Amino acid sequence: MSALSLSDLGVTLRGRTVFSDVTFSVGPGEMVGLIGPNGAGKTSLMRAALGLIPCDGTSSLATLSPAERARAVAWMPQAREIAWPVPVERVVALGRLPYLPLRGGLPDQDRAHVESALDRLDLQGLRHRAASRLSGGEQARALIARALAQDTPLLMADEPIAGLDPAHQISAMRIFRDLAREGRAVIVSLHDLGLAARHCTRLILLAEGGVMADGTPAEVLSPERMARAFGVSVWHQDTPHGPVFQPLEVVD
Amino acid sequence: MRALEPLLLLGVLALFVLSLVIGPADVPPGESLAALFSDEYGPMTLVMREIRLPRALLAIAIGAGLGMAGAAMQGYLRNPLAEPGLIGVSGSAALGAVVAIHTGLAASSALALPFSALAGALAGVGLIMLLAGPRGGSLTLILAGIAISALAGALTSLVLNLSPNPFAASEIVFWMMGSLADRSMLHLWLALPFVLVGAVLLAWTARGLSALTLGEDAAETMGISLSRLRIVLVLGTAAIVGGGTAVAGAIGFVGLVVPHILRPLVGGDPARLLWSSALGGALMLQLADIAVRVILPERDLKLGVVTALVGAPLFLHLIYKTRRELG
């Protein structure tokens, strides 16, 4: 069974068609990178797939009730909002909200999910700090941990690694890939094509009002497509250290 | 701070007892309290049961309601400057009361004024639901609230403007300052159901408010229905503010200042803040109501004046303290 299937999905905002006829499905074990130039509609695509904005076509998630959806997918929005000075561990524990009875504390099983999310994101040292006062990168890690704690078959994150230092960018991508290996499905949008090439099992390139390419990183990141979609020339090579991908120059 | 709620509760109870033994009837505290439970229906028993008890209980009920509504409003809008009056219900309730005073309806029976205020509140809620009901967002709610407040304020001014009778005008002005003096048990029974229903509705929003800490999108994908949350929040706040304003007039600053003071003490958690703000609101309003009786017992100092006089400088101090964080 797929974690997400979209058919003929299209989004029109204020009379402007952002994209249309997007059809794909994502299954367990896949770590999908959603790439595309600014304004191609990556965020809109993810929000439409979640049923958060009106759209044409169908998404398997949009038909679920809010309570069912909360157990099917965890969503990390691009805007990293933490409104109040809540301790990090409490932010992460919010991920357990869909599973909790209305009153009472956090059951042991839920606490275990919170602890493992804190461990995975290297947050044990920050757990009592007020999340709203952390640096941007630390907040991003706390919010990734929050999404992990929701423990859903599908994780969707909108530019989760933007603003992280290189070590935490790499470890966050590793975490997502490990989740996929454990049998979950992960969809992340990102702009760092080098990291996308190294860590994703599949890339979906959103450009020119639709899916321009969908396949393994090697297939999708071809120089012609990169020139067409992003207007850049690239250097891409398989090395003993794995695939290395680097955008080089802007082409006209 | 773990012991916060028990401490606040203790404070509320202590002030409740203190409030019962303070009044123009100069009777020692022990005797006053004994008279409350006395079977002989003497004059002091009458004073205790018909004057001081309803006053103290109203201060607790309305204060708790305003504190809770303030915490809920701030949590929903994720803005520490939000307050229960924001949705325009206090303004429209005041308009209802002012019309009752102006037309002389208020003099016809003791309950004419509160019922007229409730009718005003209901009209206000109807309008805001129409404007920011199932489809609106939080911004629509704020804008609709501002518009309704402005309209109610303008109509209130119009009534004052056209009032041919200076006594009615001064009565209106004094009523709008808010007071708990000379309220009866009847007033308590009128306001209490609204405050209780409002509190139950707002208690239901606790989970949604916690989830909203991470923004609307995140909350929605954690299973929170934002449109339902907004409707319940507006109805709960309106019940509390409408019921409270109907019997006590407009009392500002409790719903703004109390959640703001208590937030750091509950670790920012909006759900826990609902309950501690209820206790804190009861504490603050009782304190203010005791102050009006102690500071100027002869001059009928108005409750809303005191809450604003205490609340505004306190708020300035808080802004001064947190301005670096607010950026």
What is the element layout, followed by pairings?
The complex is a heterodimer of chains A (252) and B (327).
Chain A: E1 4-13, E2 16-26, E3 31-35, H1 42-50, E4 56-59, H2 66-72, E5 73-76, H3 88-93, H4 108-120, H5 136-149, E6 154-158, H6 166-181, E7 185-189, H7 193-199, E8 202-207, E9 210-215, H8 217-220, H9 223-229, E10 232-239, E11 242-250
Parallel strand pairs in A: 3-7, 3-8, 5-6, 6-7
Antiparallel strand pairs in A: 1-2, 1-4, 8-9, 10-11
Chain B: H1 4-20, H2 29-36, H3 43-77, H4 89-103, H5 105-108, H6 112-132, H7 138-162, H8 166-176, H9 185-204, H10 206-212, H11 216-221, H12 226-248, H13 254-262, H14 270-295, H15 303-326
Description:
The complex is a heterodimer of chains A (252) and B (327). With 252 residues, chain A is α/β, with parallel strands linked by helices. Chain A is built from nine helices and eleven strands. In chain A, the strands form three sheets. A six-stranded mixed β-sheet of chain A has the order 5-6-7-3-8-9, sandwiched between helices. In chain A, strands 2-1-4 form a three-stranded antiparallel β-sheet. A two-stranded antiparallel ribbon of chain A has the order 10-11. In chain A, α4 runs antiparallel to α5 (136-149). Chain B is built from 15 helices and no strands. The model of chain B has no long low-confidence stretch (mean pLDDT 89). The interface between A and B is medium-sized, with 34 and 23 residues.
Which strands sit side by side, in order, in the main sheet of chain A? 5-6-7-3-8-9
Helix coverage percent of chain B:
over 70%
The helix-strand sequence of chain B is HHHHHHHHHHHHHHH
Helix content of chain A: 25-40%
**What best-fitting shape of chain B do the alpha-carbon axes yield?**
globular
Strand content of chain A: 25-35%
Task: Report how far the terminal alpha carbons of chain B are from each other.
Answer: 26 Å
What's the alpha carbon Rg of chain B, rounded to whole Å? Answer: 20 Å
Low-confidence regions of chain A: none
